Amino acid sequence: MPEVINVIIEISENSQNKYEYSEKFNVLKLDRVLGSHLRYPANYGFVPRAWSRDD
Questions:
Q1: In whole angstroms, what is the distance from residue 36 CA to residue 50 CA?
Q2: SS3 for 18?
Q3: Does residue 8 contact residue 43 with C-beta atoms inside 8 Å?
Q4: What DSSP character marks residue 42?
């Protein structure tokens, strides 16, 4: 088991911004912003190359 794993965080804890990964452009782009009093409660993301495609 590796000691370090690279991850992509699409939503940071206590943030109002949600980013979405764009495979086409290989970047994170802003997807939405929550209302002023709302915050995301935890980090959310994925491990690159850990998903499979239906080809």
A1: 34
A2: strand
A3: no
A4: S
Domain boundaries, given as residue ranges, for the chain = 8-46
Over residues 4-49, the pLDDT tens digits come to 888 889 999 999 999 998 889 989 999 999 988 899 999 999 888 7
CA 30 to chain centre: 10
What is the distance between the alpha carbons of residues 30 and 17, in angstroms, rounded to a whole number?
7
Q: Report residue 21 as tokens.
A: 């990964």
Q: Two tokens at 6?
A: 């690279």
What is the pLDDT at residue 44?
93
Q: Do 40 and 14 meet the contact criterion of CB atoms below 8 Å apart? A: yes
The residue written with tokens 């491990």 in the block is 47
Q: Which two tokens stand for residue 28?
A: 């994170």
